[in-house]
Write a structure and sequence with these properties.
Layout: H1 2-23, H2 31-72, H3 83-90
Length: 102
């Protein structure tokens, strides 16, 4: 019975400590930390953009290969534009599916 009480008390202490730490405000950042955060944010944005470009290139490659395979079989394939392509077309950008028609 005492072991159970000790475990409950320890769990209560750990829970309250976690709650208290979560309520503490974050310390203010100095100029060096702000600059580092901005650099990290810029690097993350650049890597996300590169990943998006690589994904689009891979999708175009797969679509072109599929269309070529279907053409070799004598079938005509018209690429369907997804929701992202509709948004790009509305913004005046050429959708990725049009690049495979060449």
């Amino acid at each position: 019975m005492t072991t159970l009480r000790a475990l409950i008390a320890a769990g209560l202490v750990v829970g309250m400590f976690g709650f208290a730490v979560a309520k503490l405000p974050t310390p203010p950042m100095d100029d060096k930390a702000k600059a580092a955060a901005e650099e990290k944010k810029a690097k993350d944005a650049a890597s996300a953009e590169a990943a998006k470009a690589a994904q689009a290139k891979a999708e175009d490659r797969v679509a072109a290969r599929y269309i070529a395979e279907q053409k070799a079989k004598g079938k005509t394939v018209t690429p369907q534009m997804g929701p992202a392509s509709h948004a790009a077309a509305a913004n005046g950008k050429a959708p990725a599916a049009d690049a495979t028609k060449k």
